[in-house]
């Protein structure tokens, strides 16, 4: 455990994941917020833009071009894809840890990254040493890493929903795994977009990215990594009229061994001691409001006796376990802090 406070920088403090990082870190016992950037709001007190932080965050936004991030111990990038990788080399050289909430350090195959993000990777050598930031799957790698690729929001639900089965080889992989996933509109960020206008997204529900979504290659690569073999995967995201929250319904065909296994017992054993993954009792129907505002993922298992399929329902808050909360969890591990520091939050209900 270290006794000095960790100096934290946040690049992209005016976006949804940026303000969520501020909310969590403002009460973190081991953190000193040092720099919060905005290109458009430099000089403005953070609490003037976000009154929810009055009395909690006393800094003003700094222009990222003027910010000396090398004075920080860790920098979170809550920015669009491509920003973190443009600064990672200098920060790593200065001994600063980097946690990117975008996709720059998630996909080890740079050709796949370039295909989906239309950016060429500027620091593949740093990518090669980066850890994929789901602690429940890669805690030791996270602890040792200087750079974290924090996962996309959808991937966390699908990967934690499937890991126990994949690790034990209990899925019939001759047929595709299917995830039907739904997100609240804050998943699209704070930037202006027609699809997230109130008149477009409220009282409405729609699928999108059916022909291809950039989280498909991220999830697919990780599924194959965990399974150690080829996996077929179908992914359909949906936009639903909520501000925050995400629900994935995952369908898998169990293998012969899977059909004979106590799946509920397997999941309970796999996630025992994991504070942020909750395996609900048999028959439960997870609700997004049971995790709102908290770094919590809850899941329930529904065996379909007639077909040999298992349905797994997973919920999380896209901005917390799906983004900023998981990023803070990763920081805690990287700095050998209590993994739950700053994250002991009871979800907000109703
Ligand atoms: N929203 C979600 O649920 C999730 C988001 N993510 C990922 O996290 C990242 C941030 O998402 P989110 O907070 O929703 O996005 P927003 O669009 O809400 O915010 C983006 C932030 O980045 C800043 N920014 C934009 N361009 C640059 C730049 N070139 N240099 C420095 N700062 C820049 C903006 O600030 P300003 O213009 O003031 O400088 C703004 O604060 C994205 O990569 C997103 O894909 C990941 C998981 C979930
Ligand atoms: C509702 C909505 O629009 N969600 C976003 C995903 C948010 C996320 O995790 O994005 P990154 O991979 O970009 O970090 C989307 O589908 O594009």
Automatic annotation (TrEMBL):
Q: Which PROSITE patterns does the record match to this protein?
A: ARGC
Kindly indicate whether the keyword NADP belongs to this entry. Answer: yes
Enumerate the Pfam families for this protein. Answer: Semialdhyde_dh, Semialdhyde_dhC_1
Give a yes or no for keyword Iron in this entry.
no
Which InterPro entries does the record cross-reference, listed alphabetically?
AGPR (IPR050085), AGPR_AS (IPR023013), AGPR_dimerisation_dom (IPR058924), AGPR_type-1 (IPR000706), NAD(P)-bd_dom_sf (IPR036291), Semialdehyde_DH_NAD-bd (IPR000534)
**GO terms, molecular function:** N-acetyl-gamma-glutamyl-phosphate reductase activity
Which EC number(s) does the record attach to this protein? 1.2.1.38
Its family remark reads: Belongs to the NAGSA dehydrogenase family. Type 1 subfamily.
The protein's matches in PANTHER family, at most eight in alphabetical order, are given as: N-ACETYL-GAMMA-GLUTAMYL-PHOSPHATE REDUCTASE, CHLOROPLASTIC-RELATED (PTHR32338:SF10), N-ACETYL-GAMMA-GLUTAMYL-PHOSPHATE REDUCTASE, CHLOROPLASTIC-RELATED-RELATED (PTHR32338)
Q: What does this protein do?
A: Catalyzes the NADPH-dependent reduction of N-acetyl-5-glutamyl phosphate to yield N-acetyl-L-glutamate 5-semialdehyde.
Supply the name of the protein.
N-acetyl-gamma-glutamyl-phosphate reductase
Tell me what organism the protein belongs to: Methylobacillus methanolivorans
């Amino acid at each position: 455990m270290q006794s000095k406070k960790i100096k934290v920088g946040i690049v992209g403090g005016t976006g949804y994941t940026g303000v969520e990082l501020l909310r969590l870190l403002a009460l973190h016992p081991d953190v000193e917020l040092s720099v919060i950037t905005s290109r458009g709001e430099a000089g403005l007190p953070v609490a003037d833009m976000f009154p929810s932080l009055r009395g909690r965050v006393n800094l003003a936004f700094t222009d990222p071009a003027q910010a000396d991030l090398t004075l920080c111990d860790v920098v979170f990038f809550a920015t669009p894809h491509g920003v973190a990788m443009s600064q990672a080399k200098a920060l790593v050289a200065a001994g600063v840890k980097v946690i990117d909430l975008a996709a720059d350090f998630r996909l080890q195959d740079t050709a796949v990254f370039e295909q989906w993000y239309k950016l060429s990777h500027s620091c593949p050598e740093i990518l090669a040493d980066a850890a994929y930031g789901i602690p429940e799957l890669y805690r030791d790698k996270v602890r040792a890493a200087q750079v974290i690729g924090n996962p996309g929001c959808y991937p966390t639900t699908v990967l934690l929903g499937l890991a126990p089965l994949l690790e034990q080889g209990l899925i019939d992989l001759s047929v595709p795994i299917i995830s039907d996933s739904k997100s609240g509109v804050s998943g699209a960020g704070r930037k202006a977009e027609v699809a997230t206008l109130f008149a477009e997204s409220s009282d409405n529900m729609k699928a999108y990215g059916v022909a291809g979504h950039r989280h498909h290659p991220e999830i697919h690569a990780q599924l194959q990594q965990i399974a150690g073999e080829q996996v077929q995967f179908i992914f359909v995201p949906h936009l639903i009229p909520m501000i925050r929250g995400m629900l994935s319904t995952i369908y898998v065909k169990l293998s012969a061994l899977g059909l004979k296994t106590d799946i509920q017992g397997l999941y309970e054993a796999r996630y025992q001691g994991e504070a942020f993954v909750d395996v609900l009792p048999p028959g439960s129907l997870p609700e997004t409001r049971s995790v709102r505002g908290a770094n919590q993922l809850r899941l329930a298992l529904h065996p379909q006796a007639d077909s040999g399929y298992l349905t797994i329902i997973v919920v999380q808050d896209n901005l917390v376990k799906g983004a900023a909360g998981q990023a803070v969890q990763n920081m805690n591990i990287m700095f050998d802090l209590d993994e739950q520091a700053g994250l002991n939050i009871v979800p907000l209900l109703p």
